[in-house]
């Protein structure tokens, strides 16, 4: 069936994020969901593919000389076409193992405010990986469809897609994006802020994976009402140079998390200030929907509610909203119709 959003039918769709890449098949749903990582070895001008996706997660920050873990996207933007091509080729080969399709028509989600250069870079990576032809879909639209929002209605809806490298706020109505603002930063920047805090405040050096786990632990503790439970943190002491473990009360990270959430609140306020009055009025009833993996960031919902006066809902399985929306678009429509 032809998708009304793309004009032609696609067999597979890709949600290529800063942290995770998901490949979705028209008949099989999400058939690949792994970290956006690629490991290459050897000469810089002629690198050899070692691994991509999930196996590379454990290699991060642990590679020997001559081997490098590369992240194709940074802050939501494709910055390493070579690594992206390897990762897409690997993802497609894993998917093809389970499905039989050749040179599939592909739909790729991109930030709504993507530049032509960024779009061209993604097109090159996909084509070099043997994925052709390619069409693009705005990610906030896919996220809204995946969250079962009635996007076709003549009614304003605000969606905030909280990814690892981008945070996008989009005002949607009548099946399209009316207004969008994005922050080239997301959950990965919060991880970096946690690393900085431990560095300066505790003279402890930790890696990105540890910082991300601290973030999850704080969120879990506060969701089960145990916000005071200390979090175990392991790393290298900057004073002794030795492996070190310390226990930290989550409250210590409150300021770091607050600063991160305030950037998102400011972005939403920017969109609200430019929203036409009829759509603005709709938001009093509709509220704001959070999607993306970062939607569960501790205290984010409360901070947005306090800053905007609007109700905030976190979508179910928020990190999979874009993938679910792309799946729906592959089938030529959206669940709202
Ligand atoms: N429970 C949680 N609490 C806080 N953050 C979370 C949680 N689960 C996932 N995240 C964060 O969500 C981010 C990944 O979300 P997602 O998969 O939507 O991003 P992405 O699509 O890869 O990135 P982008 O769209 O920005 O390029 C990571 O930064 C991760 O740490």
Short description:
This protein is of the alpha+beta class and 337 residues long.
Which key terms come to mind for this protein?
Nucleotidyltransferase, domain 5, Actin, Chain A, domain 4, 10 helices, 337 residues, binds adenosine-5'-triphosphate, alpha+beta, 3 domains
Describe this structure as you would to a colleague.
The chain has 337 residues and is α+β, with helices and mostly antiparallel strands. The protein folds into three domains: 138 residues, ATPase, nucleotide binding domain (Nucleotidyltransferase, domain 5); 102 residues, Nucleotidyltransferase, domain 5; 69 residues, ATPase, substrate binding domain, subdomain 4 (Actin, Chain A, domain 4), CATH 3.90.640. It is 37% helix and 26% strand. The protein contains ten helices and 18 strands. It starts with 11 loop residues before the first strand and ends in a 7-residue tail after the last helix. The model has no long low-confidence stretch (mean pLDDT 90). The structure holds adenosine-5'-triphosphate. The site of adenosine-5'-triphosphate has 23 residues, from helix 5 and helix 6.
């Amino acid at each position: 069936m032809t998708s009304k959003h793309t004009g032609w039918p696609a067999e597979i769709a890709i949600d290529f994020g800063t942290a995770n890449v998901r490949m979705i098949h028209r008949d099989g749903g999400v058939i690949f969901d792994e970290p956006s990582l690629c490991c290459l070895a050897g000469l810089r001008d002629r690198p050899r593919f070692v691994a991509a996706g999930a196996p590379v997660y454990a290699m991060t920050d642990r590679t020997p000389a001559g081997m490098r873990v590369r992240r194709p996207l940074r802050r939501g933007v494709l910055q390493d076409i070579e690594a992206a091509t390897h990762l897409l080729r690997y993802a497609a080969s894993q998917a093809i193992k389970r499905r039989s399709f050749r040179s599939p028509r592909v739909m790729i989600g991109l930030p709504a405010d993507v530049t032509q250069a960024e779009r061209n870079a993604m097109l090159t990576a996909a084509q070099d990986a043997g994925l052709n032809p390619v069409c693009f879909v705005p990610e906030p639209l896919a996220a809204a469809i995946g969250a079962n929002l009635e996007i076709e209605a003549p009614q304003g809806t605000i969606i905030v897609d909280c990814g690892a490298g981008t945070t996008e706020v989009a005002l949607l109505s009548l099946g399209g994006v009316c207004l969008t603002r994005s922050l080239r930063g997301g959950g990965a920047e919060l991880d970096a802020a946690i690393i900085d805090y431990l560095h300066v405040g505790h003279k402890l050096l930790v890696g990105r994976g540890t910082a991300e786990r601290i973030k999850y632990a704080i969120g879990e503790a506060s969701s089960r009402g145990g916000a005071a439970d200390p979090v175990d943190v392991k790393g290298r002491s900057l004073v002794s140079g030795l492996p070190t473990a310390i226990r930290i009360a989550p409250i210590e990270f409150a300021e770091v998390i607050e600063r991160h959430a305030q950037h998102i609140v400011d972005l939403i306020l920017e969109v609200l200030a430019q929203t036409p009055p009829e759509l603005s009025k709709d938001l009093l009833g509709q509220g704001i929907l959070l999607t993306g993996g970062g939607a569960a960031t501790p205290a984010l919902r409360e901070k947005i509610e306090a800053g905007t006066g609007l109700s905030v809902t976190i979508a179910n399985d928020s990190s999979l909203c874009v993938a679910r929306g792309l799946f729906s678009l592959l089938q030529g429509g959206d669940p709202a119709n």
